[in-house]
UniProtKB/TrEMBL annotation:
Keywords: DNA-binding, Repressor, Transcription, Transcription regulation. Residues 6-60 form the HTH lacI-type domain. The keyword Transmembrane helix does not apply. It comes from Dyella humi. This is LacI family DNA-binding transcriptional regulator. The lineage of its organism: Bacteria, Pseudomonadati, Pseudomonadota, Gammaproteobacteria, Lysobacterales. SMART domains: HTH_LACI (SM00354). SUPFAM superfamilies: lambda repressor-like DNA-binding domains, Periplasmic binding protein-like I. GO terms for molecular function: DNA binding.
Length: 354
């Protein structure tokens, strides 16, 4: 049998299931066992079966596409986040449409509006999104999940990282390793993750090094800002004993500046980051950091959204916080491979709007 122009009946016959089962699998409607889903997808791929999406959308009222609006598409954090979202979407027969909102609130609004009518639901991670933004730009009936957001709207589930606890754990480790003067490089001022990480630094210094001055230098999550911050810190007297950057990209920029100035890490100054992007373990010395399961964040966000697309799902909206822990490598001057102070994930349920 030729694989060209295969029909849904061909897929059903080859997979030895009903047409209805094939339809449910390819439309992501559930009600089919994982084993049957696997068989149907394999047969559909082998027969080169291509569903008529236009006709299917008319019948189901769905596009089988998910939208993701992110602050940026550059860097390992976002590529890993998109990977986690995409893998979970593909497993459910869903396609992914991605846009960025790095140019401001108007750009974020344009990205959201451009997806209306083209997606069945949205994942939104943007520092410009608040309750008013959602009301103005997101249709009431369009399901959405918010990531790393302070928004407390009972309509939308929120998935956050425990940034504050992660930062506290890292500062505590640095102080207990003998570094009283710990400097902090911030992220963007309006970024929720950056705000929570700075709060964690401040709280930990107040508790574990109350006599040490706070040393805070501005950054924006880029390598360049980490490089500039390091140059500024090296000019200070006395020089910090340790530097904690609010993300790994800035820590890597910082590391380059230290090496350029002939400063040994960790001999002269200890260094730590946040996120545990892949490259963190391959720089020299390998970077101590707060580990975030970035791909899992994307996967869980897609799973929460997929649940919202199921009309039978009555799970109330919630704010779910993912735990993190610190991974100690050579940049802190301690034995590598030690995982310290895990924070537990938690969920706070909220009643859905009536």
């Amino acid at each position: 049998m030729t694989t060209k122009n295969a029909t849904i009946k061909d897929v059903a016959r080859e997979a030895n299931v009903s047409v209805a089962s094939v339809s449910r699998v390819l439309n992501g409607l559930g009600g089919v066992t994982p084993e049957t889903q696997k068989i149907v997808r394999e047969v559909a791929a082998r027969l080169n079966y291509i569903p008529d999406n236009a006709a299917r959308s008319l019948i189901t009222g769905r596009t089988h596409t998910i939208g993701a609006v992110l602050p940026d598409l550059y860097g390992e954090f976002f590529s890993e986040l998109i990977r986690g979202i995409d893998l979970a979407a593909r497993a459910r027969g869903l396609h992914l449409l991605v846009s960025s909102s790095h140019d401001g609130v108007a750009d974020a609004a344009a990205a959201v509006r451009a997806m209306r009518g083209r997606v069945d639901g949205m994942l939104i991670l943007s520092e410009y999104v608040d309750a008013a933004f959602l009301e103005q730009n997101l249709p009431e009936k369009l399901p959405a999940v918010l990531l790393d957001s302070p928004v407390k709207n009972t309509r939308y589930p929120v998935l956050n990282i425990d940034n504050r606890a992660g930062a506290i754990a890292m500062v505590r480790h640095l102080v207990e390793a003998g570094h009283q003067r710990v400097a902090f490089i911030t992220g963007p001022k309006t970024n929720f993750d950056a705000q929570q990480r700075e709060k964690g630094y401040r709280a930990a210094m107040a508790k574990y090094a109350p006599d040490a001055p706070l040393v805070i230098v501005d950054g924006d999550f880029t390598e360049e800002s980490g490089y500039r911050a390091a140059r500024e810190l090296l000019a200070r007297k006395p020089r910090p004993q340790a530097v904690f950057a609010a993300n790994d990209m800035m820590a890597i920029g910082c590391l380059y500046a230290f090496k350029e100035a002939g400063i040994d890490v960790p001999g002269d100054i200890a260094l730590a980051g946040f996120d545990d992007i892949l490259i963190a373990r391959y720089v020299t010395p390998p970077l101590s950091t707060v580990h975030v399961s970035i791909a899992d964040l994307g996967r869980l966000a897609l799973e929460r959204l997929a649940a919202l697309l199921n009309p039978t799902d009555k799970t109330p909206a919630s704010v779910e916080t993912l735990g993190c822990d610190i991974v100690i490598r050579e940049s802190c001057g301690r034995k590598a491979g030690v995982t310290v102070a895990p924070t537990k994930p938690r969920r706070v349920s909220r009643p859905s709007p009536t």
